[in-house]
């Protein structure tokens, strides 16, 4: 189709292949110790449970599970999710506050679609989740990036200054991952959560709380979710996924929030894919109902805790003494974030570590302005404890070599 | 969220709940003979096969099937689809010509997204598929509607006149369902297929061939697909679904077309949902590989043929003699289309038949301009042969009463 570029939409012409995703393909070659991915460990998916659930759903629910379903989600799953909110958040929600989605990524895209016109703005952390950046770009929205404090999350005072100076302007919503953020592993403090909800009410914007990792806490104490803190149910739209606590391959998640937002999400989801797989929804409904999710949350915490602790230890040991280096100490999730001394380019570091079979993701991938080249995201959910120690030793050596080289240059 | 309407995007504010989908909810009440739905019959989904496939995929492929997959689709399925194109269309396609999607509806939405900027135009039949209309509206595209000839499909001479008069203008693509079209059941002739491809090359637009029903032929001879006729592989983008030949509840389909289009679809699919369920993809790959699809195509034709024939017979018997009434005689698919005399409002007819427990969908739902109130879509895949005869008797009586009333008014 030689005339393709004459008929593509502007948004399609503007989209480029993600360099990061191309790099990630490199990092899957055999022999690599990869801190680059963001995958749940396959050993956390229980084969026996899955066999049992599939057998049950096909035998007992074939005619509904394998048929089209309503856009909002099947009632059997919604009922379980309402119960789950009660148990985990201590809150009551109604079916009208919920929509089932094809995992959280779809919800990220649909929230962008219902809020953003061309050049409308969305507030987000620097750094923030790559899939969010891509979704907003695909609707040609613009970012207002705000720094992330490694100890307590996004800089709320900065957000307040923005609104005081300009009012809401073209800002439609704030996107954030309050618990064990991707990519930095940082958790938002209770004070900041409360203050952000006040600001949203005052300046009349929405808060999209992306919550994929909340159930993956290995140490420390839970902080109430923003959804739970939004007692008037008029500010916070929370995105959930089954990818980290059941199986990513089912592509299943849900959204809980104000009815007006759920209504619009339903209207844009219908033409997007009619409905999310009722088969996957039935599997999840029984996964919750039969108590497997509850067991799994304990299992996962025990499974990932040694990896998290190994990663924090190894980073402290290998990088702790280097001037200008800092890093986060996540209490859960899958990622730890490193800041290297100014002038150390993480792209160059990546080339060096890759030569020695260690991979990570460069920090600029997660920056809304594609800047901040001296940062790195390290995943600890996929590698073994041994790989974490070995890989971090190599990464530490490479950093030290670059720092020495730079000092002598 | 009292300020919701201040922050929604224009496109979200413009979307309305589909009256049709709301009406469809009415038609699912017990005791109704419904010609309104568009569902494959649940008896066409084979429980034993599904159990066997699920058991195999979970046992043998757990670590890939239940993990994230690449956006383009899993290689195991793509390999089977290439083989399928060879067998069914007699054509060779490459992996770069294909992308797996979350059923055809997602492909309809993503093609709209890569082609349409605000107020760009898309050519389509009057009537055409409702889900296509909704997808284009969600991107605020505009329709150029062209009449459908009941005997051989869309009016190609009209299309030619449009391009001769204005050139391509803002028209980006032609959307059509060449085989057993939804809603009218009409099939596009070979001559028209060939001519449309010539026109697309001359005026440099794309053809989106939506092909959900092609394998559901009960009588007559196959006409080559537009994909097969596009031997230069530079015009036609074809959308496929597993919903009618395997199970709608898996939400699985694929697109085959020019590499440039597939590349853009991949770029917009990534932020839309990362990937389609690898679990569903593995099920489908084995469904094809183990020969179940081949068996199913024969089974489905035998299963639906009596319903198709009963519907054509019943429509001829009950409506054939009424002046001003015409109808299509589909050789496959799921739908038959009725045109009522001018001035007979199918919305009023719907109210009458619903009182007597018979439902259908009013034709204006399928019109890009929401006009043409004297038409009706009848589904024959879901009701039994007895229900078809009984329901059509009632529908015929209602039409006759309305015609008589109108004549005496």
How would you write the strand order of the largest sheet of chain A?
Answer: 2-9-8-7-6-3-4-5
CATH fold label of the largest domain in chain A: Aspartate Aminotransferase, domain 2
Give the DSSP E fraction of chain A (strand runs of 2 or more residues): 5-15%
Low-confidence stretches of chain A: none
Question: How are helices and strands ordered from N to C of chain A?
Answer: HHHEHHEHEHEEHEHEHEEHHHEEHEEEH
Q: What is the CATH domain class of the largest domain in chain A?
A: Alpha Beta
List strands and helices in order, with pairings.
The structure is a homodimer of 409-residue chains.
Chain A: H1 4-7, H2 10-14, H3 19-26, E1 33-34, H4 47-65, H5 75-89, E2 98-101, H6 103-115, E3 121-126, H7 130-138, E4 142-149, E5 153-154, H8 156-166, E6 171-176, H9 190-203, E7 206-210, H10 226-229, E8 236-241, E9 253-256, H11 259-273, H12 278-289, H13 292-319, E10 326-327, E11 335-339, H14 346-355, E12 358-359, E13 361-362, E14 375-379, H15 385-407
Parallel strand pairs in A: 1-12, 3-4, 3-6, 6-7, 7-8
Antiparallel strand pairs in A: 2-9, 4-5, 8-9, 10-11, 11-14, 13-14
Describe the structure.
- Two copies of one chain form a homodimer.
- By secondary structure, chain A is an alpha/beta fold.
- The first copy, chain A, folds into two domains: 147 residues, Aspartate Aminotransferase, domain 1, CATH 3.90.1150; 232 residues, Type I PLP-dependent aspartate aminotransferase-like (Major domain) (Aspartate Aminotransferase, domain 2, 3-Layer(aba) Sandwich).
- The first copy, chain A, has 15 helices and 14 strands.
- Chain A has an eight-stranded mixed β-sheet, sandwiched between helices. Chain A has a four-stranded antiparallel β-sheet with strand order 10-11-14-13. Chain A has a two-stranded parallel sheet with strand order 1-12.
- In chain A, α6 crosses α7.
- Chain A is globular and about 70 Å long.
- The relative contact order of chain A is 0.16.
- The mean pLDDT of chain A is 95.
- The interface between A and B is large, with 84 and 84 residues.
